Fold these 2 entries.
Entry 1:
Amino acid sequence: MLEINNLTVQIEDNRILNGLSLKVADGEVAAIMGPNGSGKSTLSYVIAGKEDYEVLDGEILLDGQNLLEMEADERAAAGVFLAFQYPLEIPGVGTMTFLKAALNAQRRARGEDELTTPDLIKRVNAAGETLEIKKDFLKRALNVGFSGGEKKRMEILQMALLEPKFCILDETDSGLDIDALRIVSEGVNTLRSKDRSFLVITHYQRLLNHIVPDTVHVMANGRIVKSGGKELALELEANGYADYRQEAA
Amino acid sequence: MTEVTQIRTAAETGLGDLFDRLKGGLPGDVAIREAALAGFRERGLPHRRVEEFKYFDLRALMREAAPPAERPNATEIAKAFNQAKAFASVPAYRLTFVNGHLAASLKEAESFPSGIEVVPFEQALGEGHPLLASLGRVEVAQGNPILELNTAFMNDGAVIRVAAGATPDQPIALRFVSAGETAFSTATRVLVVVEAGAKVTLIESHEGPDGLANQTNTAVEFVVGDGASVDHVRFNGEGADVLSLSTITATLGADVSFSTHNALIGSAAARHQVFLACKGENSTVRIDGISLLRGRQHADATLVVDHAVPHCTSRETFKTILDGETTGVFQGKIVVRPHAQKTDGGMKSDALLLSERASMNNKPELEIFADDVVCGHGATCGALDDELLFYLKSRGLPKAEAESLLLQAFVGPPIEAIEHEGVRDALVGRVEEWLAARR
């Protein structure tokens, strides 16, 4: 279970998160919606361990472990995964090389045996099939020359391989066409389990038709201002964020 | 008018005295040596006020002249052989030089296939070997102080002839290793004549122990006939205290494919120079280099490509990683002569600085006298991308491992361009060792 208490974060004297609290139970899919600039992406980066942010107050606990005391790679090994809004291209680093390095680094950190190349290939191929990723993509440099949709599918492939406990999807639907949205959502849905929870960050209710959330939270001005069930997303879609902007101000 | 008296450094005085003492015993025509030393006698060692040496002040770097290496004895040879590890995994026709001297009296060369002829340089000089006429003929290399010092002092090396049409099944490997207790200097010269239509890979490694402040000066000169193909890969894994000076020259005929790659990890200070002249049409040239620097290393890559005829293509790709308090230098010049139309030249130097105290000097130059050419150059200096590092860390890679992956990717392209798989893999191994030592 992920528990965020009173998280207060700034970047270069700009307060972005303002005493944010949130709980996501094991197996729960929590959606976070909110207007531009409400701090959604910052929240995802702070959970994953990006260094640019100054945490002034609060804590983030994953199964009782304080993530804020860990490096990004240690958080990954502890089970945190962030699917980036804009996955990065890494010229010169082969996709398979990268996947193997990542997977084995996490296994080493957890004291598990490293995976052999044939084992890895088997797992990658299996995951790649669900996500309709062409095999020759895996031979290319990571994300280089991939379309927006292909990059997002590669993020979900990594998620499937790394088997995290807590997954953050940061606007995974942005830049996806209808087919890609379906494929990515199916990829996520197959990973849903009672031990794994998700934080789905999105602007649009559309994604939540495919990945149906258990809870929906509205974020404005750096904190959660309303929480509810999946019907809250529909309400937002109909009425917009105007009420919450005012409420927060 | 006041008399200007030039003040000589200890190294300069030492080199002059050394030459006077040695010249009677050096093989071949002493007049050639005297002529080569004239520039040094007049100007001394090149220093930072000499444009080509602005970023590699040889006068400051060479404090004293180390005595020339004695011909090593059997024990030293045996000890040195064990140090030649760089390309040990590559099956090759090997020639080993210990402390600059061709070792084992050419026993190794007996296993060479027909089509490759090897003559010890000393012998070639002594008997006035006809191929030596092509030594030092690359115009853009003439007057170069490092090459001139080599010519003045050259005492050992080899003349290698690859016969017309020969395609040896393995690379020729020149292994330079050093051993001993006291610092020494070398002046080794290798002439490689690749006749028309031959295809050969030549690998060169320079290795030795830390703690010996040797001053090595090697020059490898290629004369490449029409339609021949030459791939040259050089590895500098010298000990951490060595002052390494090296020169490659190449004269290319028509329809030649020529590549030379310098991978540098070793030496305290190193200057690697390439002087290449396209003398026949439709030749393709690649000059590449990677330098991985740590501590207080200082490495200079200098090259001049002379497009003297039309329709030739040249590409230069240099990658430098600078850690600690290191200094990197890239100075590349592409010359396109008035009639060398349709020349296609492209030069690129990229540097990655891992430390605030490292510095890189890029100096690309184009001298174009023809009007129908495509030439370009580019240079970059930067640090590792924090966003990429975070992406990799967020996938579980610890910082050091993430950095290694990005650094490997950075130096990847010039290594991947090496055609010979075994040689390529060997260099990848050297890079991995360097990265592992960094963690």
Note: The radius of gyration of chain A is 18 Å.
Entry 2:
Amino acid sequence: MLEPRDESDLREIITDAAVGGKNLELCGGATRAGFGAPREAEQVSLRALAGVIDYDPAELVLTVRPGTPLAEVQALVEGEGQMLAFEPWGGEGATIGGTVAAGVAGSRRVTAGSARDHLLGLKAVSGSGTAFVAGAKVVKNVTGYDLPKIMAGSWGRLAAMTELTLKVLPRPRETVTLVARGLSVEAAHAAMACALGSNADVSAAAQLQGGEILLRVAGFVPSVEARCLALPGLLAAHCPVDRLTADDAAPLWWRAMTGGDLHGSVRWKIHLPPRHAAGLVRRLEAVGANWAMDWGGGLVWIAVDRTDDLVRAEAAALGGEAALVAAPEEMRARIPAMHPRATGAAMLEDRVRRAFDPQGVFATNRFEEVADADQL
Amino acid sequence: MTIAMPLPDADTLERREEIAAALRAIVPGEGVITDADALRPWESDGLTAYRQPPMLVVLPETVEQVSAVLRWCHAEGVKVVPRGSGTSLSGGALPLADAVLLGMGKFKRVLDIDYEDRIAVVQPGVTNLAITQAVEGRGFYYAPDPSSQIACTIGGNVAENSGGVHCLKYGLTTNNVLGVELVLMNGEIVRLGGRHLDPVGLDLLGVVVGSEGLLGVVTEVTVRILPKPETARAVLVGFPDAERAGACVAQVIAEGIIPAGMEMMDRPAIHAAEAFVKVGYPLDVGALLIVEVDGPAAECDHLIEEIARIANANGAVTTRISRDETERAAFWAGRKAAFPAVGRISPDYYCMDGTIPRRRLPEVLRRMEELSRQYGLGVANVFHAGDGNLHPLILYDANVPGELDKAEAFGNDILRLCVEVGGVLTGEHGVGIEKRDLMPEMFSEEDLKQQQRVKCAFDPDLLLNPGKVFPVLHRCAELGRMHVHHGVVPHPELPRF
């Protein structure tokens, strides 16, 4: 594993690889290295490019190097009563750069947006070893193409980020979880949709296998109290709701947000139109799947033991996309991690990828590459 | 009139009749406009200082027609400028003498509304406000609200990544769009995103939003709709100077409040607005702040008191809290009329759009005053204070020889100042032609080349909306687009230029 100490080191490593026809795999804490096909490319860890460059809470902007541990960034902004509103999460050693590059977002994603919505600007080194800047360090900017959007969630396939500017927001003063139990999947889903579609400003909604829904109400105390009083009435046609203590709520949200402790050796992450989430889990329960649902049904975690792509086919049939996030190596070699795209979009994506990485330095076989995207 | 457009291609101009005939075969009837008088209304957008009748206008009605028009133009090397309703303030839809103007105004249908999943699927010619009107009966709305929302279309909003007064809390267009159908310059139709969050693969949608019509033509848009807040309240606060108003804004945010809107006006803007709409703005203050909160009534009542407290602690000289909807509307009436109000006190005005780190506001205003004296032109400021987005309005008279040039030079100096203090050239109006030549103030040659390489992935012949955004157009081959893998050139038998 290579560990550049600074941007100039990194440029040299990438330029050498481009000239020598070598592949490199960019990583932060490598906590999600199990995602994607087995590959042999040398890892380049950006962990040593760490530290906060600028943080001005009143401007709602934080500039940080990619190798800074995610936990450190979260502790820093919490200390100022703020948060990364997309609720990023990761394992031990996860870095802010890796988390953004993986497009990770938590339960608040359904109302507050994803990593892409909070990455305002960056510095990076492209696959040809050239440093460039994109976006800016202010919260409102439309100058030039919005390249930070495409860097978030790009899994290191475009360029190595050396500096990230993120939007931060005030942390809610009070957070309450309301719970309803004993519901059918369909009834639970209807209640979640009702809550998210109401003006009670529910910031997250999840459903767990076994008929439980969680609704998060956050903000200033008088507002939270008023909304917690209003929600039972708004949901009267669906289900009664109770308050959960923060300690009881935390592990349940964790399971919804991360798939947590679901039993099964193969883990899928499905993004789909929420209205189809109940239908999907019904069909997959029939083949023995365990599941958890977040984002009001827009995210479904599936755990199974079967190593075929039935789960992906079922998701696709309902307008969803299934990513294979954890599986035995043999399965990962056979089944692409990312949901296949329509040909036109896939070829466009590959041309854009090469706009950043013309030599294919970061094309490591981890994700499927299109053979010849110029042939339209 | 200092911004030069690419020289028209003489061959293309000579082929005008042939091009019109070919496009009439694709869009029959009245869908192709070539008559000189009929072209006149299309000669400019919201940046009215620049006018250029297009070679011809085509108004397709179906995706297939858009695709066929683009495919034909691509094959024949004819340039295309896409246009929504033409409200761009940066010249994004300015026609070119040798280009087809592709008007999307006939794509006016709302295709689907899904209240359960809180999305609406609309055609690009639907106006921003019409989306809200289509869903408000069920208690929903579309959040981004650019001031031109009665006229501007969602297709144009996608191209420009439009904002509005509520975007600190609710985001820009890009944060509220889930998917588009896009026709590439070669006629290919692709779908990016769709009806769910975080689609697989690279976020091409994120790059298309805000690409100013340079990457493709949007033929369908899927947006998020939100439940309408239960209520809204506003507070109108006068300060002796912008410094204290700025300190108030910083403290509101530091105390954890993200208002739905937070607008500042300086003394010239206050006086112009009050003279125009007479809503009772205090005239003896140096800066006026309108802060609006929305949400549950209990929240609004709580926050509005907190904001009034913070305002008073920061030296407010007048504080008025809206008691009802009429009063809240009155607070906004002056701000919303600020542009036409300035239009009454000056024959012409030029609206700028930089963003700065808010903490630099007093310094920026002071230096703007110096520039105002230096150029001998007045300036009134309205300011989306929450997110640091400045709209200086430069007052000039186009009938005085040289004054437009002077206004543009003044504007350019303001934008350079924004970049110098750590801000950007444009917060919501786009680069277009207006700020095109200032791009090197903010981006290095390499930064701009990286953006142009992305352009080349979508439109390698640079036929879509040329002359906009980029100060220098590099041919794609120059940018090293060609993929050389392990030293082997693909298709070595083909000539490369």
Note: The radius of gyration of chain B is 24 Å.
